[in-house]
Amino acid sequence: MPAMTAKIKPVETLANNQASPSDQHDNARLGVFYGLAAYFAWGFFPVFFKALEGATPLEIVCHRIFWSAVFLLILVTTRLQLGQVIKALRDWQILLTLCGSTLLIATNWLVFIYAVQHGEVLQSSLGYFITPLLSVLLGFAFLRERLNRWQLFSVLLALIGVLNLAFHHSQFPWIALMLATSFGLYGLLRKVARVEAMIGLTVETLLLAPIALGYLIYLAMQQESSFLVGTLQLDLLLPLSGVVTAVPLLLFVAAARRLRLATTGFLQYITPSLHFILAVWLYNEPFSQGHLVSFLFIWTGLGIYSSDALWKSRAAWQGSRNR
Q: Does the residue 160 lie in any domain?
């Protein structure tokens, strides 16, 4: 898959080459708005999924997939876009890319819910703090986005932070790294996929919906299901998880297609910041000196990268005004 994606030129890059500077600026502003909305929504996900305790992580993921598919099918049907979904399913290049992104986002969902239910929201915060810096590396490796010395330094600081955490706690932070890797690669594949945001997400959920529904039926037959046999809260929130899942993802993909991968990564600090606040001050998860040192390394890396990105953005804006 990486060898294939390295040769694909992002769709929005082609579009931006033909657009005027004013159109590109408006497109980028819209992308930033979508990105902010997505990351703030994801920031409060631990609160929502904490309320689903009583169902296993795998059952919750299956409900997320199935109800997302139902919600998205209704949306594309009402918008007369069902034909585009069928067209995407018949295009083997798009389908292959979306198969990869589907597996990545499903893995991310499962690991995240596991983290929330096992009191590891702090690790999810760490994972999503790492993701922006990983996005910088992915943009350099596969999309030929330039990587300057400050960006390299910021990535190195993040790596030191992860290694410090593993050393001090004698436990490899696999949850954080799984979340960062799966979501970073998901953003990369969705950026190069030649398909509109809602259509792509609909295809992704449809690919897994039969498997998810089959597992939910199996749980019901084994009398191990939490749906319609447990509390009213679960009966209401499990179907709602589809809408809660789909809307931020639609916003994220719409943002990713309008922005450089590095810019998308820059916005991602919002989600882990909110996770960090929830983990330490609401859920009272242990926060040791080793955690503090690791987070300081990662926060410093993000600060350096953010300052560099802001400086370049201002320079580019001033240059466009002078022209």
A: no
